[in-house]
């Protein structure tokens, strides 16, 4: 199920074992018309491929009416009184050399259906049917694993996208500070910020030599002691970027180089000046008001922000009244919440 194309080796072996011209596996979710069909065998001639797409649209055989785990023959699937099905047989199947078929339906508890078929001439008989019957429990297990794997892939993709929008990610390091694995968007963070980069031999290399030495010593200590205390490292104040490094407790992961530490990286892709410009656009603040609002959102008091921005406390208080009026905030705590939960968090 992890092959590309999916199940290619299995279908090739099934075709060889059964002696059939074609071996196919089709997926059809119960509540969807979407069809995924995989097969092993000679390629379909272009004129027959065009005929199938133009006239039949999709395989007209009544797969959904098949009982689960029961093997059907071609004659059992084709209704003698159905002109479409008989035309499909005469115009498409027989020119491909398909006069016999054995097909079985397997259902996965989540609702995914699969149909395993062997098709060809006289060689497709009762022995092929017995082979498909024997494969049913194994295919059911494989199908269940495939559905679970696809679900986890989707969840991983959603989580990765959320991490990226929040400018948060993680990477694992071996004892030599080489990157073993990481969330996909961190590569973009490396290129954008230059505070961290993937160095020679995939080594995580901070731009600051002092941080590089600190990180190297920290990872070495984690390699020796998996119960060591995690440590936070500030990489930049503007734009803000922090890293929390901790030892990995469970080192039974399968990898070429076993990870000993995991680093959680959180940062802002925008500078303070950029954020102030965005507050001007979002709330209609003046540049001076935006600078004060951003300082307050970073946890400063009015007096601390005034000193940092070179304002008097009285001027800062006047600015804050205008900020509250324009944003609709009823106090400092609500202003912080408005700013940090606004679209700026996704910018």
From TrEMBL:
GO biological process: regulation of DNA-templated transcription
Occurrences of domain HTH luxR-type (ranges): 282-339
GO molecular function: DNA binding
The protein's name in its UniProt record: Helix-turn-helix transcriptional regulator
Provenance organism: Sphingobium fuliginis (strain ATCC 27551)
């Amino acid at each position: 199920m992890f092959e590309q194309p999916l199940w290619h080796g299995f279908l090739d072996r099934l075709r060889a074992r059964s002696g059939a011209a074609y071996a196919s596996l089709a997926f059809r979710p119960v509540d969807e018309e979407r069809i995924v069909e995989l097969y092993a065998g000679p390629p379909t001639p272009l004129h027959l491929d065009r005929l199938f797409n133009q006239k039949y649209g999709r395989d007209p055989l009544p797969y959904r009416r098949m009982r689960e785990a029961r093997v059907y023959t071609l004659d059992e699937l084709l209704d003698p009184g159905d002109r479409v099905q008989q035309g499909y047989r005469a115009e498409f199947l027989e020119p491909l050399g398909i006069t016999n078929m054995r097909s079985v339906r397997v259902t996965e508890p989540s609702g995914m259906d699969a149909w395993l078929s062997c098709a060809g001439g006289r060689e497709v008989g009762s022995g092929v049917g017995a082979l498909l019957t024997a494969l049913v429990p194994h295919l059911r297990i494989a199908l269940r694993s495939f559905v679970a794997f696809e679900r986890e892939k989707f969840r991983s993709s959603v989580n990765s996208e959320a991490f990226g929008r929040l400018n948060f990610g993680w990477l694992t390091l071996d004892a030599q500070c080489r990157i073993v694995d990481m969330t996909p968007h961190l590569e973009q963070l490396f290129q954008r910020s230059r505070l961290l980069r993937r160095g020679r031999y995939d080594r995580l290399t901070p731009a600051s030599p002092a941080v590089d030495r600190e990180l190297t010593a920290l990872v070495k200590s984690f390699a020796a002691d998996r119960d060591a205390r995690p440590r936070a490292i500030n990489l930049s104040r503007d734009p803000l970027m922090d890293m929390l490094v901790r030892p990995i407790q469970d080192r039974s992961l399968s990898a070429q180089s076993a990870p000993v530490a995991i680093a959680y990286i959180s940062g802002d892709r925008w500078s303070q000046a950029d954020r102030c410009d965005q507050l001007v656009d979002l709330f209609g603040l003046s540049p001076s008001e935006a600078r004060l609002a951003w300082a307050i959102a970073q946890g400063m008091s009015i007096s601390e922000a005034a000193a940092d921005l070179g304002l008097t406390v009285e001027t800062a208080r006047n600015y804050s009244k205008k900020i509250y009026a324009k944003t609709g905030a009823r106090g400092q705590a609500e202003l912080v919440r408005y700013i940090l939960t606004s679209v700026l968090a996704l910018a």
